[in-house]
Amino acid sequence: MPAYNESPVLADTIDGLLKYVRPANIVVVDDGSDDGTGKTAAARNVTVLRHLINRGQGAAIVTGIRAALKLGADIIVTFDADGQHNPDDLPAMIEPVRNGEADVVLGSRFIGQTGNIPRLRRFTLRAGVFVTRIISRIRVSDTHNGFRVLSAAAAGRIKISQDGMAHASEFIDQVKINGLRFTERAVRISYTSYSLAKGQRNSDFFKVALRILLYKIFSS
Amino acid sequence: MYKLISLIIAVLIIYKSWRGLRARNISKWFFLLTVTVGVSVVISSFFPDLSTVFAKLIGIQRGVDFAFFVGMLFLLHLNIILYMKSQQNKRDITRLVRELALRDIDPSKKKE
């Protein structure tokens, strides 16, 4: 769980996950926060790692995945710290990997009930899906969803170089490049004023699209 | 007058890059590049018609346009090099920050 200045909501997010996961199996990566995020997480007895300086969500996710592998995890879940994801979706998300049906499960807010997505956010997310379809030639319904499940073997093969928000598109690209079996599952997203203020701005779409385009040019 | 100015600028560029090479701040390839640029500036200002000859070779009418075209290409090339270097620096910093963070992993807390 990457976390940057999330202390107002982090305790609730961790408490939600503790219904399904043991504290030692939750890895919070404090990405250079200055609001006591690390202390908030440590108070819940979860594993806390600290980036000395802020490196971005993508960098924090990679650190978390590396830590999980080091701790011997079989299944790794990435989960946003800002409380927008619903921990009750976790069992259904894990199931395909646990059953060996998929290497990667991608959460999608566009499957099932999609009522509460702000209109502009819906448009930019759809645009992201379109760009990913063109650049990575993979069909998914939600590219920028931080709720994912991956097997340890898949985690070892996925290489993320984008430190910022573009990591989400790169993740999908890596699924395609590595020929990993993937499936999508419906997840519920809570759009609160907090998560909307903390999350990606709609204008970030252009920045992310440019970054992923440059990544494809320079990595090929 | 412009010949004298371009000569002074070229000498300054080459002198600065030579000092950079001596101090090992720049590579010998970058030094050779700056010498080439400096010498080209001097030659084209003393023999302006020469650039027109080269320009016509690739289908451009005026030597000035040719110099502008080459300059743009050079700046684009420099931009790409700087972009790639800055990306590499970012990646190195992230790697360092990550390795420092992962030192805190306690192996005794291995998955139950």
- Would you identify the regions of chain A where 5 or more consecutive residues have pLDDT less than 50? none
| Shape, principal axes of CA atoms of chain B | elongated
Strand order of the largest sheet of chain A: 4-6-5-7
Q: What is the terminal-to-terminal distance of chain B?
A: 81 Å
Chain pair sharing the greatest interface? A-B, 26 and 20 residues
* Integer average pLDDT of chain A: 91
List keywords for this structure.
heterodimer; A: 220 residues; alpha/beta; four-stranded mixed beta sheet; three-stranded parallel beta sheet; globular; B: 112 residues; mainly alpha; elongated
Describe what you observe in this structure.
The complex is a heterodimer of chains A (220) and B (112). Chain A is built from nine helices and seven strands. With 220 residues, chain A is α/β, with parallel strands linked by helices. In chain A, the strands form two sheets. A four-stranded mixed sheet of chain A has the order 4-6-5-7, sandwiched between helices. A three-stranded parallel sheet of chain A has the order 1-2-3. The longest helix of chain A is centred in the middle third of the chain and has 18 residues, at 119-136. The radius of gyration of chain A is 16 Å and the shape is globular. Chain A starts with a strand and ends with a helix. The mean pLDDT of chain A is 91. Chain B is mostly helical and 112 residues long. Helices cover 80% and strands 0% of the residues of chain B. Chain B is built from four helices and no strands. The longest helix of chain B has 40 residues, at 63-102. Chain B is elongated and about 75 Å long. Chain A binds chain B through residues 22, 24-25, 29, 47-53, 55, 59, 62-63, 66-67, 70-74, 161, 163, 214, 218, and chain B through 83-84, 87, 90-91, 93-94, 97-98, 100-102, 104-107, 109-112.
